[in-house]
Write the structure tokens for this entry.
Amino acid sequence: MRKYLLLGLLCCSLAAYSQAGRSRTEQRERGVVAVIPFQWYGHHLVIPALVSGSTDTLHFIFDTGAEVTVLHYGLMEKLHIQGRKKAGMSATNDLMLKVSTATLNALYLDQARLPFLKVYLENIPEFRKGTLAIDGFIGVDLLRAFIVKIDYARQQLVLYRPGADIPVTGATQRIPFRLSFHTPVITATIQLPGGQSLSGNYLLTTGGDYGILFNWPYTEKHRLDQQLVTTGTDKVQDLFKELDYINSSIPAMRIGALQLQQVPVSYCKDVNDDSPLMEIAGAAGCEIWKQCPAVIIDYARKTLYLQ
């Protein structure tokens, strides 16, 4: 009896090992490099990371609108890194500021590795208050290295190797995008309170703490500040200055086949993210994208998938 029991356990173990092996093989076939759980910091998506040479977990806000990787200046000594030559970093109204930079030997995100990552050293005390201290921001550097899936339903970031075949369902929308400098830009149509529809180009900013943030030149051109009913105001701290947002809402927004109702919107006279290549209507932030169970950004193929 004992012999048969041991034999049964051995068979179960072999079956489990075989199944685990198949799972690992399937994962490799799917091209998954890392699965990273995230947590919310307001409307910001925060992922854990490790810097080579340190065992301390850092917390980065992931934002597809972050064209450079930012690291809190106060971590230099702790992480044993040295600031090097200053480089330009764009701010609101096309203001260019010079900040120190450094190169990390590697940044680890679960099993994913970003080698020789250039970071811009910036003091961000306003993001280091409360129970969760934010250590930096990352966006385009991650998009360039991997196909990125933001799984809002499972609250995890999935990184695929470049060129991987992404498993999509029949309900998945495939939306091409262009680039404004390094930020993805999609086309969308909004409906104003008076019934007028406007199509425009919107920056894909998953870390934006808003629904739509209209560009001020676009706001002036279409007199949105005269048509939209103010529902409130907010003082918002960006990396360089405090901004005054005026909040409102619009009846609808359409991105491909995705229809959104009663969309929160904001505008600010200090926000000008226009591009020499195209007119930018504004930025589509977290309140837009989290309406989807999952969003996949294939930066190399300039394709956005909405699931």
